[in-house]
């Protein structure tokens, strides 16, 4: 017995020692990949010495003798801090994620291949301006020189993630940057998903289903989808999607169709206290760790430029130079159409075209899968565009038997000069030059907000489809591919800015009349004169216009009814909740109970209104539709009929449904947080989870790589913080401002910036999450274009000299 005990003790001690040695080895090799920001390197590809001066927050300020040398150094800086992210973004655009992540990435790879993102990027390279080709080549050379330095100095493969994935880091190509920009463009548009949702609603309830979107102002009233496709029947909805699906969606940091939002607003000098134009911009993207954005300053021949970049793209997408500030906002325009193509019975190689049965254009590609069999896919293309079966999980529900879906999108261009427009914008001297440079931009359609010493302006940029007047769905639902009247008649550049010179401009991704846009307009018009601080306050505003509009309407017959109920009873909980909401100003503050009660009530109410009509499809209406609820409770167009539960014998009115929904919400929250409604907190459930693609879902590693923090705001606040809307954590914040910038042209060095995580993608770096706390609290950092200030505050300087 004693012998067994001794052997067990020895085995336990041995395992502990082995575990410690393994942990030390992992730590050592991971630490090796942390870059030394004070090192000097001899490199090939530059004509003169270059300095990368790092600020306290690890923001690189790059100084070189030529623009090409500066772009080279930006490639080095991006690769030093975000090499794994860059390679994953490239793989996402190439359709090669499955090579390192396995079979779970096959749908993403399949879609990227069918869209031809990388293939079109390679072709588009030849369409770029010569200076842009040189910039792309220099940037690629900088990335590759850092990869060479990593290999030469045994620097832990450049990032610790490379030890966990079988990734052979191939050298960067100029087309890779264009491909990532195309991936970003595909991510920005939700038009295809919206078309599919409208079709599903029409099939679920032909008479009233589309009202959920048409009453909410996000689409026209349409003829039934079944009238276009008599054989169409709503299939069983897809398996409910949860947080694990979101992690798969973000495996490449971006995914086509996820959607990108933004606010952009500016005030002319006559509307500012300091007499210089102000501009603010905050793109809203999926929250990842690290952030999609990376702060940088470049000293170009035309002057310094500073702001937000995306690793892999050598351009400042939102920022300023000494004379001009700019910000980008996706435009509320439909640049995508889905076509339902009929496949010839008995011959899957042909489809019904304008003049009869037509051969698909086909090619075959192989997707290599980690720990799995290679997948050979056949890519088919029609006159309307590529066949895309995985564009949205709900597509299968609306495809008639014997049909496939093809996509037409402006971003499919093989002559896309968008990257030339963005690189050229950095050197523009004023608004007119900026508009000229941006005229070659293709996708996605954007509203660019501009400010210079003379004033402010906005311009619509990008390519826009032209649809005939008799288009069967006006682009709001999928259309039969064989109908001539459903085809685009052309693609034209977006209309430039109007001739009038405004003193204030505002843009969001919403259509005119959108709640956030209206709230932002009110905030800006309340003051005659603005300052940098008032712009910051507007950018961080977390008052929900939806809450302010809906609560008085939905609760009109519930406030202060009856005598106070006994403490601890459900009636008393309802009375306490209503009392809190009656005195609430709509501020979606993480420390308050009112936002949580409101959100849970409206979610339960909307579900109760639509579930009897839509059945399981109601699970896919994950976002609140305030205009729909408003129309129902105002009985606009007879919409109050939604309050009656069709399957029940009584005829329910809207007050009854509102009370039942509130009771349901209070019961659910009480089971989570106890009976005292005043102790509940919005931030307990509304938490931003910045997911690390690839490792965020792995047990143990997710705890290290992901960042979680409670946040204020909501779906309809100016400081937007979109909730997941489904699963066990429906109010988890999954989308928000990945970057915020406010640019003051009266005092440029007082301009402020922030990203949602930190500059480094290395989890052992102190810069992995050092900006996350500032971002959560609504704080910023300053970044100056003054070279002396940059050097004075430097915590490290990387010196590159020609070999």
Automatic annotation (TrEMBL):
The chain crosses the membrane at residues 7-30. SUPFAM superfamilies: N-terminal nucleophile aminohydrolases (Ntn hydrolases). The keyword Transmembrane applies. Binds 1 Ca(2+) ion per dimer. Pfam families: Penicil_amidase. Keywords: Calcium, Hydrolase, Membrane, Metal-binding, Transmembrane, Transmembrane helix, Zymogen. GO terms for biological process: antibiotic biosynthetic process. It comes from the Bacteria. Its cofactor is Ca(2+). This is Penicillin acylase family protein.
């Amino acid at each position: 017995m004693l012998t067994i005990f001794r052997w067990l003790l020895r085995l336990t001690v041995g395992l502990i020692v082995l575990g410690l040695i393994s942990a030390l080895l992992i730590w050592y090799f991971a630490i090796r990949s942390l870059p030394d920001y004070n090192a000097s390197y001899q490199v090939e590809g530059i004509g003169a010495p270059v300095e990368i001066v790092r600020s306290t927050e690890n923001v690189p300020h790059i100084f070189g003798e030529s623009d090409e040398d500066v772009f080279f150094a930006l490639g080095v800086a991006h690769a030093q801090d975000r090499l794994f992210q860059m390679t994953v973004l490239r793989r996402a655009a190439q359709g090669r994620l499955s090579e390192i992540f396995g079979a779970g990435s096959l749908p993403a790879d399949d879609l990227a291949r069918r869209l031809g993102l990388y293939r079109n990027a390679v072709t588009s390279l030849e369409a770029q301006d010569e200076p842009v080709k040189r910039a792309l080549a220099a940037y690629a050379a900088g990335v590759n020189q850092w990869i060479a330095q990593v290999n030469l100095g045994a620097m832990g493969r450049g990032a610790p993630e490379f030890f966990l994935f079988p990734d052979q880091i191939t050298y960067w190509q100029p087309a890779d940057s264009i491909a990532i920009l195309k991936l970003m463009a595909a991510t920005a548009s939700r038009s295809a998903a919206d078309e599919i949702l409208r079709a599903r609603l029409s099939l679920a309830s032909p008479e009233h289903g589309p009202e959920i979107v048409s009453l909410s102002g996000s689409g026209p009233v349409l003829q039934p989808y079944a009238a276009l496709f008599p054989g169409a029947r709503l299939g069983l909805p897809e398996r409910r999607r949860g947080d694990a699906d979101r992690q798969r969606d973000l495996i490449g940091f971006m995914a086509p169709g996820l959607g990108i939002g933004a606010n952009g607003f500016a005030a002319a000098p006559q509307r500012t206290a300091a007499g210089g134009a102000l501009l603010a911009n905050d793109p809203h993207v999926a929250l990842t760790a690290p952030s999609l954005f990376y702060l940088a300053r470049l000293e170009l021949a035309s002057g310094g430029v500073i702001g937000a970049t995306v690793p892999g793209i050598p351009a400042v997408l939102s920022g300023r130079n000494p004379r001009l500030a700019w910000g980008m906002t996706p435009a509320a325009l439909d640049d995508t159409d889905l076509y339902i193509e009929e496949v010839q019975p008995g011959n899957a190689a042909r489809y019904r075209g304008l003049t009869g049965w037509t051969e698909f254009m086909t090619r075959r590609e192989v997707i290599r899968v980690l720990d799995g069999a290679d997948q050979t896919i056949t890519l088919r293309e029609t006159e309307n565009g590529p066949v895309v079966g995985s564009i949205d999980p709900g597509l299968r529900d609306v495809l008639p038997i014997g049909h496939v879906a093809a996509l037409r999108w402006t971003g499919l261009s093989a002559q896309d000069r968008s990257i030339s427009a963005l690189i050229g914008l950095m050197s523009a001297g004023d608004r007119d030059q900026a508009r000229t440079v941006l005229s070659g931009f293709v996708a996605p359609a954007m509203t660019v907000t501009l400010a210079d010493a003379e004033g402010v302006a906005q311009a619509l940029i990008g390519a826009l489809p032209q649809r005939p007047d008799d288009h069967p769905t006006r682009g709001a639902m999928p259309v039969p591919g064989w109908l001539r009247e459903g085809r685009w008649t052309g693609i034209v550049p977006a209309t430039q800015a109007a001739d009038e010179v405004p003193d204030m401009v505002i843009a969001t991704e919403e259509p005119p009349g959108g709640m956030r846009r209206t709230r932002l307009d009110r905030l800006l018009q309340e003051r005659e004169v603005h300052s940098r601080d008032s712009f910051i306050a507007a950018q961080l505003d977390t008052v929900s216009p939806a809450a302010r509009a809906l609560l008085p309407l939905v609760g009109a017959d519930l406030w202060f009814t009856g005598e106070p109920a006994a403490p601890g009873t459900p009636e008393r909980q309802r009375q306490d909740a209503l009392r809190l909401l009656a005195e609430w100003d709509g501020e979606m503050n993480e420390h308050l109970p009112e936002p949580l009660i409101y959100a849970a009530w409206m979610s339960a109410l909307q579900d109760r209104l639509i579930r009897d009509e839509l059945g399981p499809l109601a699970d896919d209406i994950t976002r609140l539709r305030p205009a729909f609820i408003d129309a129902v409770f105002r009985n606009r167009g007879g919409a109050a009929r939604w309050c009656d539960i069709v399957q029940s014998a009584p005829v329910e009115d809207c007050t009854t449904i509102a009370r039942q929904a509130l009771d349901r919400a209070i019961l659910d929250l009480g089971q989570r947080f106890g009976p005292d409604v005043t102790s509940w907190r919005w931030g307990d459930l509304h938490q931003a989870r910045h997911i690390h693609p690839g490792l965020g879902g792995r047990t143990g590693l997710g705890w290290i790589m992901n960042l979680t923090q409670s946040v204020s705001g909501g779906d309809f606040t100016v400081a937007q913080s979109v909730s997941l809307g489904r699963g066990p954590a429906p109010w988890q914040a999954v989308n928000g401002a990945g970057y915020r910038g406010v640019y003051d042209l009266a005092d440029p060095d007082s301009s402020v910036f922030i990203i949602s995580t930190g500059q480094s993608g290395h989890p052992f770096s102190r810069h992995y999450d050092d900006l996350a706390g500032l971002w959560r609290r609504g704080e910023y950092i300053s970044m100056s274009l003054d070279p002396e200030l940059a050097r004075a505050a430097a915590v490290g300087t990387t010196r590159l000299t020609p070999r």
